[in-house]
Prior knowledge:
The structure is a homodimer of 260-residue chains. With 260 residues, chain A is mostly beta strands. Chain A contains five helices and 19 strands. Chain A has two domains: 48 residues, Roll (SH3 type barrels); 210 residues, Fumarylacetoacetate hydrolase, domain 2 (Alpha-Beta Complex), CATH 3.90.850.10. In chain A, strands 1, 2, 3, 4, 5, 6, 7, 8, 11, 12, 14 and 17 form a twelve-stranded mixed β-sheet that branches. At the A-B interface, strand 7 and helix 4 of A face strand 7 and helix 4 of B.
Amino acid sequence: MRWVRVETENGPSYGIIDGDIVSLVKNxxxxxxxxxxxxxxxxxxxxxxxxxxxxxxAAGLNYAQHVIEQAKANNRExxxxxxxxxxxxxxxxxxxxxxxIIKPKDASDEFQxxxxxxxxxxxxxxxxxxxxxxDIVFGYSIGNDVSERxxxxxxRTMWRAKNTDTFKPMGPWIETEVELNNLLTTVxxxxxxxxxFQTNNMIFGVQKFISAxxxxxxxxxxxxxxxxxxxxxxxxxxxxxxxxxxxxxxxxSNPVVAGV
Amino acid sequence: MRWVRVETENGPSYGIIDGDIVSLVKNxxxxxxxxxxxxxxxxxxxxxxxxxxxxxxAAGLNYAQHVIEQAKANNRExxxxxxxxxxxxxxxxxxxxxxxIIKPKDASDEFQxxxxxxxxxxxxxxxxxxxxxxDIVFGYSIGNDVSERxxxxxxRTMWRAKNTDTFKPMGPWIETEVELNNLLTTVxxxxxxxxxFQTNNMIFGVQKFISAxxxxxxxxxxxxxxxxxxxxxxxxxxxxxxxxxxxxxxxxSNPVVAGV
Lengths: 260, 260
């Protein structure tokens, strides 16, 4: 099932996609479905960020080639993580499918996409085994963990390198029926493929991360986890359009514009 | 004005404190005040975390002596930050005044308090000057940024060192009338004072942080910023009670218990 959040005359509403039609529902995610009876066309719907999370978790370094390439770019030895240590991103930076990524005036040329699988938590969980971990997952979406590498290298935290307003495109929707091992992530810039990788080829998979996190923290409905990206990203410039596709989920597309 | 969040038969409610009385209100923080007409005694009220934040910001290293002492404890040269780079904490870890801080079984002895000023944002703000920064502040509270130093040194992120469940006591309430330069923070463990410092003796003050942050990110009502702590903390053990007082705001008190 595919959940979308759309702007309506009465404010934000969730809906369920069937073909080209969005059937609006009264409830939020995670509740029993109650249709309003109103249907709109997906093509004309104004899509919103599909979830404003309770806590916005991010795995960071979670694909081997990305760790190696990032280390090379920074003249460091690669340091493959041996434990799943989760990080954080911030909701101010979220934008929806189609909305512009604004490159700040003072950002360097090293302004880059990162195509990521997004895990949406739908149930409360603590002390979960890896076998139990997927029981609390509601569905999956697509994220673009836009990063300014100079700030990422030089700042004490990743606050502006990764969390400047508009740096976190997410969407277009949340898909509940996903077979993790079948997913392929493909990133295209201006319709040219720049990377393609097996989505589930992570250093620590979704089950491992959820189980490890839940040993120390309680996950709750509305939390989400971005699972990291693969490879070395190329630079984005104003005028570019960045598309991130995950097979079985969809395509998240955002133009890049210059900040004023 | 002093805002408190209390548990009632009908769920969480905000109230305004006048002496020993809490007058319940229909609204949340930031809205026009509308009293329900119901009053309860502060002494018998079950206090809740006064705010579940939209984004939970934390200044981290923001007092000179703390930076020096932390570096000494880790056999490093102190590195006083020259820019206000904000970090993050997570809401799962929040507990209210009076609730127990649970020391995990596998935590080391280096399990420590950090007494901090909490800034609650009440208005939307972007690109604010330092002179404008306090215009978006709703009020102030007290936080205990409980930290497990071994995990803080060894993990790739501060996820469990600072964000394990119960590691973020906050409260007891939010005070809107505060003169930042008059504040004194005092930490007591089992009624013995362990540190006392001028709250506003920060490397980067509240105005500086808000102004710098707002150059890149939009602050919104319900965000909060923990401003860091001073000095070197001592270890907490199960059975201890940790009190953090900030003059003009109040005292946040939490017992420490052993995890099972």
